[in-house]
Design a protein that fits this description.
This protein is mostly helical. The chain has 2 domains: 362 residues, MFS general substrate transporter like domains (Growth Hormone, Chain: A), CATH 1.20.1250.20; 82 residues. It is 80% helix and 1% strand. It contains 22 helices and 2 strands. Helix 4 crosses helix 6.
Amino acid sequence: MTLAGRPTSLLTALVAAAVGIAFADSSIVVLGLPELYARFHTSIEGVSWVVTAYNAAVAVTAFGLIVLVHRIRARGILIAGLLVFFSASLACSLAVSLPFLIAARCVQGLGAALLLAGALPVLGDLTGSVTRGAAIWTLAGTFGLALGPALGGVLTQVFDWRAIFAAQAPVAALGLIAAIAAPRWAALEEGWRSSLVRTSPANVCLGLLFGALVGVLFLAVLLVITVWGYSPIAGAAIVSVLPAATVAARPLGRRLGGMTAICGGAALVAAGLVALALLPSASAWFAAAALAFCGIGLGLAVPTLSNAALDPAAGLARSGTFTVGVRHLGLVLALASIAPLLAGELPTAGDQAKLRATKVLLDAPVGLTTKVPVALDLANEFERARAGEIPNLAKPFDDHGAGSDPKLAATRDTLVGAIEETITRAFRPAFALSAALAALALVVALFFRRRVLE
C-alpha cells in the first residue's frame, strides 16, 4: 500500500516511533538521575523535577488542547508537536544548568502533548482504519512507557545522560518527515462532551494505573540504582523485565474478554507492587519477578482501557488528547503524593542504618587504627545522604585497603548489606501506596464495568 509513491507502512512506523518515544520520556531519564544530580551538584529532590516537569507539561498542555484541537488539522498539530519536541530534545542534550534542563523539559512536554494528540488521527488515516490506527498508537505508547527506564539506563551507561535526549532528536526528525508526507486529515468532531463523559470511567482507570506505575517506573528504579548500587546498564537489565513482560502479555490480552483483561491486569500490577513492598532485602531476582507481574498487568489492562478511552465519536484527536492528559495527570499526582511519603520515611531509615553501621563496625575483627578512619569517612558519607546526595558507603572501606584485606572487605559487605536492607524497608509505604492506586483502578473498573467498555 502506497501514498503518492511512498509506502504507508514506513510512514506509519515512523509516526508510531515518535509516539513511543514521547510516552517513554515520562520515565526514560530515571536511570540517569544519579549522574544528573552529580553533574549539576543538586539534591535528589531538585533533580526529580527533570521527570516531574515533563509529565506536568504534557498534562497541562493536553487539557488545554481539548477545547482547541478540533479547530486545527491533526497533521498540523503533529508537525508542530514534532518540531517543538525535536528542538527541545536538542536543548535538553545541551543543557549546562539544572534550571535550563527543567525549562527545556517543560517545552519538550508541550511538544509531546501536541504530537500525541495529532498522531492518533494521522495514524488512522495512514492505515486506512480508525481502529487500526488507534491500536498502533496504543501499542506504541504502552511499549514506550514500559521501555523508558531500560532504554535510558543503556544510553546513560554507554554514553552519558545527554545521550538520552540526543537520541530522541533523530526519532522526532524522522517522524516529522513522515508527518509532512502524510495526507491531510479532515474529520468532523461532533458530540464530544457527551462522548468524553461516557469514556470517563476508562480514563479514570488509566489515570490510576499510570499513578500506580510510579512505583514501577520510578521507585523500583531508584531502589535498584541509588540504594542497591547497580550501574545504569545493570539496572536497565533488571527493569527490562517490565517491557518484555508487557509485550509477552499482548497475545493473552487479545484472547481474554475486555473486563477480564482490565481487572486481571490491574490486579497483577497491584500484586507486583505489593511484592516490591515486601522485598526482604536487596534481591535483584525478587525485584525482577515483581516487575514481571507488573509488566504482564500493564500489557493486559492498558491496551484494553486505551481502546475504550478512544472514542471516534468525539474525534480521535480530542479523545486522544483527553486520555493523554488524564494519564500524565495520574503520574504527576502520584509523584506528588509518593515523593513526600518516601522523603518522610528516609530520615528515620537513615538513623536506623547509621546505628546498624556503627554496630557492624564495632564488632568487626579489624584493628582500631583501621576502624577509626573508616568510621570518620563513613560519617562523611552519611552527611552527604542527609544533604540529599547519594552516599558511597563502600568507598571508605576501599580507600583503607579492603581490596587486600579480606576481613575489612567482609566487614564492608556486611555493613553495606545491612544498610541496603534497612533503606529498602523505607520504600515499603511508597510501594504500598502505589499498589493501592492499582487496586483502586480495579475497584473503579468493577463498579463501572458496564460503562468502562461502552
